[in-house]
Amino acid sequence: MKDINLNYKNSMVNKDEMYKTLRLLEGEIVRMNEAKKINYLDDRASINLPTDAQLRKTVKNVVHEKLKLKPNNLVVVGIGGSNLGTMAVQEALLGKNYNLDANLKVFYADTVDADNISSIIKHMKKGKTILNIISKSGTTVETIANFKVLLEELKKKVVNYNKYVVITTEKESMLYNYAVENNIDVFEIPKKVGGRYSVFSPVGLFPLAMLGVDIDKLHKGATRMVKLCTRTVKLNPAALSAAVLYNNYMKGRVIYNTFLFSNDLESLGKWCRQLAAESLGKVATIKMSSKNVGIMPIVSIGSTDLHSMAQYYFGGLDNVVHTLVKVNEKNKVNVPNEKNGLIDDLNKLSLNKIMSAIYNGFALALAKAGRPYMEIDLFEKNEYFIGQFMQLKMIETMFLGKLLNVNPFNQPDVEKYKQETKKILKLS
Ligand code: PA5
């Protein structure tokens, strides 16, 4: 099977700069290889998820049991790292419009949006629902509030409600104990696997397998990428990509745009955004002094956002570096050969060919304008490729943490808003 190919010839980083940066990552690759041997004990533990066959087996067993209940809806209750990965893979593989003709519809209860939750409740009233509550800490206000509301609704609908709930959390969290006390199926998230690195744990695997996603192939793609990203720096796609981003960052290009040429990959872009923002935007200690650092991640969708952001990308500040992702669409659609005076030269072309021309045109124009970019010039919307892509991004983020001198596994400043909110709501 093909591997993701990263082309960085237009990244505007010279060989010397690349070489120097890559050398800084050599120690990190050694540590990553050590982390592979000690399973879930190191901060880099998430790289061991894709080879965990027992984990997939456990997930499949629970999926089998829950599908026997013949549910009409799956409601994923979780926020941030607890739901973005699932949403990303589901939309990339099954499409944004998946629910329109799905036997098992999927809904996401992330923020405490009363309108969104009301519309989920409407669907719950119409059929049977599996609630999957996902919270590593088990204490996230939004998730617990939504769970309480939706659980009450579930209890109105079925007597043995606990059979319809699956909890995914850290061992011995409040939620974990609740699951045990109420005889609810519970998946454990390994302690060292943080939310935004958890898509290949039961956090992503359970809801995705419920929807028919092939989790073996997802893990297979990720496993392959772990292999590619733990080898020597010069052939290591995550190290190369991190080196390009770091060198551009040092030249003032602090914005990193993941530019995906497919509507269904928008959530994948948002998953990338959260991964980079929460991992890298923080205070670094450099030579005994503290400094705020961070690459600002953004997402664009091609060609839609060429009609929104392109003017800035060419004419605005030279502070952006892009990764362009060219996608092989599954369908082919031709423009009919009927002359009606409306750009008749388009007749007989396919939408795929037009998209490809726009992609190539944009890349060429960036090169001519001296604006840096990398390319993933072939992206297939299948489990193997998506597994590879997500694993690549997670390891790239770990490498960037090393280069920026920050810990990519914590998010200390997120607590700030949580503490203020708790004070306003008088929560303990
Ligand atoms: O990546 C992270 O660690 C965060 O985005 C968390 O996933 C998010 O805050 C939700 O936390 P929890 O899973 O504890 O409810």
Topology:
Elements (H helix, E strand, L loop, with lengths): L5 E2 L7 H10 L1 H12 L15 H16 L4 E5 L6 H11 L10 E5 L4 H13 L2 E7 L5 H17 L7 E5 L4 H8 L3 E4 L13 H9 L4 H15 L7 H14 L4 E6 L5 H15 L1 E5 L2 E5 L2 E6 L8 H6 L4 E9 L22 H19 L3 E8 L2 H22 L9 H12 L3
Parallel strand pairs: 2-3, 2-4, 4-5, 5-6, 7-10, 7-11, 11-12
Antiparallel strand pairs: 1-12, 8-9
This protein binds 5-phosphoarabinonic acid.
5-phosphoarabinonic acid binds next to loops.
Briefly summarize what is shown:
This protein has helices spanning 15-24, 26-37, 53-68, 84-94, 114-126, 141-157, 174-181, 202-210, 215-229, 237-250, 266-280, 310-315, 351-369, 383-404, 414-425; strands at 6-7, 73-77, 105-109, 129-135, 165-169, 185-188, 255-260, 282-286, 289-293, 296-301, 320-328, 373-380. The chain is of the alpha/beta class and 428 residues long.
